[in-house]
Amino acid sequence: MAMVGKALAGIALVGMLLTVNTTSEASIQQSLTTTPERVSEATVPGRIAFTSNQRIWIFDAHEKGSEPVQVTREGSAVLVGWSHDGEWLLYMHYPGADLSDGYLWAASKDASTTIQLDERPVRGAPKWAPYSLQVAYVTEVARDGETKREFVIKAIKDGKEAETVSTSPADFADFTWMPDGEAFLVSTQAEQNRPMTLSLRDLNGNQQAAYPIAEPPDVQDGINPWAPMGMQVSPDGRFVAYYVQYNSASLSADGVPIQLFDLGEPSDKPLEIGEGLAYREWLAWSPDSKQLAFINGGDRMATHNKRLRIIDPSGNVIFETEREKVASFPVWTSQAPYSLAYTSGIGVPYEYAEERVLVPGQRIWKRDASGEVRQLATGSEQTADTFPALSSDGGLLLFVRLDAANKGALYVAQDGKESELLRQVTGEVGYYGNYLPKWIDVYWDK
Predict the structure, then answer these.
(1) Strands (E), 312-396
(2) Does pLDDT of 12 surpass 90?
(3) Is 293 helix (H, G, I), strand (E, B) or coil?
(4) Whole-Å CA distances, 206 to 186, 209, 345
């Protein structure tokens, strides 16, 4: 069963390798000689982390004369995200050609200090605590002649080192912080005579509650639901949405059930709310916990049959995009009244060509609290917009406008006007065009 977990975790990596292998040598040489360039004096109340030519950069957009600062200079790297206070940026660094071994680093907001959090490779996705400088992740340790997974919590102390808070066995399939930052919700995989289970644990790994969410599998059937993955807990801590992965990597790659479980009513069965690709970034709770936005639709291609759906905690559908459209990256404003931004375009079969965007004419749309839906940015059919980032009140929008599959520019939009802010933002198209990991992460001023 451990091999199943590794196979599932490797799907995104395979997608990255596929896109790397389709990039021409001439293009790689050209991109390596091109550095990010600020092309507008427009200011933005926030800091922007982004990738360019497989390196991490930080751009403080408060001042007119500021320029992007390079963080990494060798190997390749991908973003994890900003801390709750915007003081530190987490990223994964891959020093060599082996993209299966990534190391966890943190950079200060001005890139003057970098800290390696662990000398061992990190498995899966590290996660910041909601309200502290603690980071949780999974690594591996040799013990009794065996390699075992270890769950680690570290805290950045005094702006110069990472201090271990706790370690415990990583005997789970996935984990996420609870909204108060005082506990974790973990998922354990189904095995013979053991059902898929959600467990609440404290920071030392002690179990506080267990929630079986299915019957034990009939292992004679061969393919069965395996484990909840990509969990997103509602801000009030009451509900959790997740994907039910199968014990088959190939089957899971084409879409899995999406379920909603009420942690306050553990005797109730999970509610199946849709089917989709198991990307945590495609599940988004509104800050008041009254609405869940997610991308619904099967098939591993991220360029078609993917509709935005918004439901309430009872599973009632509030809104859904048109069937012919393809959507991704739902993101809410942090201040009420809550509105939602997302990408939307006419769905097309996945077809990679380095010089063309995957979904021509894809734009950023916004659904406000009243239910009104409108397009936030305009552009030609030869471009596509992605990675929407809304300011707290929704008045400002940052996004990447692609002019090729792996290349674009950072734009800012406000009051119906848009301007190019930064050129040469680059990254990979990901697994069948999911554009993960994300190329930008924005910390907005509070």
Answers:
(1) 317-320, 325-332, 340-346, 363-367, 373-375, 384-390
(2) no
(3) strand
(4) 11, 9, 46
Helices (H), ranges, 276-369? none
- Residue 13: strand, helix, or coil: helix
User: Residue 216: its pLDDT value, please?
Assistant: 92
For the cut 60, the answer to whether the pLDDT of residue 231 exceeds it is yes
Q: Could you give the 3-state DSSP secondary structure of residue 28?
A: helix
CB atoms within 10 A of CB 100: 11
The length of the chain in residues reads 446
Q: How many CB atoms lie under 10 A from the CB of residue 144? A: 5
Taking a C-beta distance cutoff of 8 angstroms, is the pair 328, 342 a contact? yes
Residues with Cβ < 8 Å from 65, sequence gap 6 or more? none
Q: How far, in whole angstroms, is CA 268 from its chain's centroid?
A: 29
Contact by Cβ (8 Å): 273, 256: no
- Residue 328, amino acid: S
Q: Which residues sit opposite 283 in a β-bridge?
A: 294
The answer to whether 413 and 369 are in contact (CB under 8 A) is: no
CATH for 1-70+279-446, among 1.20.1300, 2.120.10, 2.40.50, 3.40.50?
Answer: 2.120.10
The whole-angstrom separation of Cα 11 and Cα 55 is: 22
What DSSP element (H or E) covers 243?
A: strand 239-246
Q: Which residue in this structure is represented by tokens 């014990």?
A: 247
Give the chain's end-to-end CA distance (angstroms, integer): 44
Tokens of 409: 């520019």
Of the candidates 300, 282, 292, 267, the one whose C-alpha atom is nearest the C-alpha of residue 342 is 282
DSSP symbol at 332: E
Q: Which residue has the tokens 């082996």?
A: 98
**The two three-digit tokens of residue 304, written as one number:** 């078609």
**Residue 342 in tokens:** 């997302």
- pTM over cut 0.90: yes
Quickly count: other Cβ atoms within 10 Å of residue 34's Cβ. Answer: 13
pLDDT band at 15 (very low <50, low <70, confident <90, very high): very low
CB 104 within 8 A of CB 88: no
Reading the block at residue 156, the tokens are 């950045």
| Residue ranges of domains in the chain | 1-70+279-446
Whether pLDDT at 29 is above 80? no
